[in-house]
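Lecture 7 notes: from sequence to structure.
We start with the chain below.
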Amino acid sequence: MDKNSNTYTFIYASVMVILVAAALAYVNGALKEKQNKNVEVDKMSQILSSVNIRPAYSEAEAKYNEVITAAYLVNEQGEVVSDNAKEAFAADKTKLAVFEATVDGSKKYIIPLYGAGLWGDIWGYVSLNDDANTIYAASFSHKGETPGLGAEIATEKFQEPFAGKQIFKDGKLLSLAVLKAGAVPDERDYVDAITGGTRTSEGVEKMLKNCLLQYEAFFKNIQAKEEEVSHE
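Predicted structure tokens for the same chain:
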């Protein structure tokens, strides 16, 4: 065949496209399992960070299996609808997942959070003590907030002040306020907003309230059981 002909050029280009596509498909298939595993381990690390545990990547899965003692799904009435840990781990924001952890001999309830910042999605996890009211720790992340401003939600400096704050006042779930300098606090517990990151800080406040309110009945069920035990 004449290598200078249009037919040769077309056949050559077609073969090359097919070969490249086949190679990419093979590589994608070969790496997919590893990619999925990386996503799982990253999620485990994020969950652990909400109870102040930050293991190395190679140790994250083992530490997760050690610390997380249960994972399940609940409904808005606070009832467990599935105790399948794998289903809870894979749940998205349309389902209410709960993770239980044991830290220093004490039970913690970990709740996933989903929201919106200035430039995109923000998310995280907040852990509550066994009173289902007092925050033990919190961890946040983001898709594309501004470095040095909104992106500061992913730093320990922003996250640490959440510890010890309470989400209930007089039996009502109020969540927390995230206040900029000079703002007057209301009856809610609060943490300081990020200087120059007002929109992202507001996003964190809305995320906390919107997500935690969905678990209000679940928290109250725990509190009622704790009260019964204390009176026995």
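Points to note: The chain is about 40% helix and 25% strand. The CA atoms of residues 223 and 229 lie 10 Å apart.
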